[in-house]
Amino acid sequence: xxxxxxxxxxxxxxxxxxxxxxxxxxxxxxxxxxxxxxxxxxxxxxxxxxxxxxxxxxxxxxxxxxxxxxxxxxxxxxxxxxxxxxxxxxxxxxxxxxxxxxxxxxxxxxxxxxxxxxxxxxxxxxxxxxxxxxxxxxxxxxxxxxxxxxxxxxxxxxxxxxxxxxxxxxxxxxxxxxxxxxxxxxxxxxxxxxxxxxxxxxxxxxxxxxxxxxxxxxxxxxxxxxxxxxxxxxxxxxxxxxxxxxxxxxxxxxxxxxxxxxxxxxxxxxxxxxxxxxxxxxxxxxxxxxxxxxxxxxxxxxxxxxxxxxxxxxxxxxxxxxxxxxxxxxxxxxxxxxxxxxxxxxxxxxxxxxxxxxxxxxxxx
Length: 365
Ligand code: PMP
Hints:
The chain is of the alpha/beta class and 365 residues long. 34% of the residues lie in helices and 15% in strands. It has 2 domains: 17-260, Aspartate Aminotransferase, domain 2 (3-Layer(aba) Sandwich), CATH 3.40.640.10; 263-364, Alpha-Beta Complex (Aspartate Aminotransferase, domain 1). α3 packs across α4 (101-110). It is globular and about 65 Å long. The site of 4'-deoxy-4'-aminopyridoxal-5'-phosphate has 11 residues, from α3.
């Protein structure tokens, strides 16, 4: 068996140890004579799996008691609608910051449901930066302010979460953390709501995690379908209908793995080291370039370009021959992207940096 170095943006690499444990438990989970996939979500065994996963996630992210953790379906894309449906309350508009493709998709969906005030945008700069918070035109009467903490396609990430003027006292901050949740410690209290699709740092696709200030629940717009109402899911312990049981179980294994890595402080150190190796190689090169301003470069999705897009094919083919897979940039922006989530080992970055050096040398000869 060989495991490739998988730089996929998502669904993405999972820790080998987690997959090995899942394999060992696949046919007969803890003497039950069945797979977790075959179990009732109401069984004592699955309730135990679910509760352990929740407790571990609360511990990892230090989620305060007055926040509700939800394990949902529908991906982050469904949250683009659930956030306005649940958080608008009696307000008619929400603030959004536009830092790239995923912010733009959230904005487009919110516009179906409310008036959207775009507080700032880096679109004119090809989304290579995050607009200075001092320039954001926040509305003190907005229902919430939405940001994307890490733009998966552009590779632009908030390094810290800024205050954004007087409205930060009263306007809840909502963050799409799909591609950098669990990559570093965060202060959950800074946010009214955090959401993330699972398929990068949490587990397999099919599960969506939401962490919401309990005070913000229970005000869904009249007529909101019950499956889109956070309060309905909270009341049912995220089992309002059949949950994605196997994805939930695998996420639990990932949380256990993360705890064994020293929790989020431990994984952050490793993530910073991995990203620095790759950005240092890009900066030292005369061939590869980073399209992102140095103070907002993502530790999760490292985008880079060659001087001539014609060279991309040769670079990607050579990478594939070395087992360095899924380095092609998103089709909307081109270039290359190495997604180096928690489960991507440092050896993968070392192999990529070696290959980039070789490619550069060969291109000069
Ligand atoms: N937001 C971000 C930042 C993402 O990276 C993605 C998926 N790549 C999404 C939202 C959409 O997630 P999903 O496919 O789970 O709906």
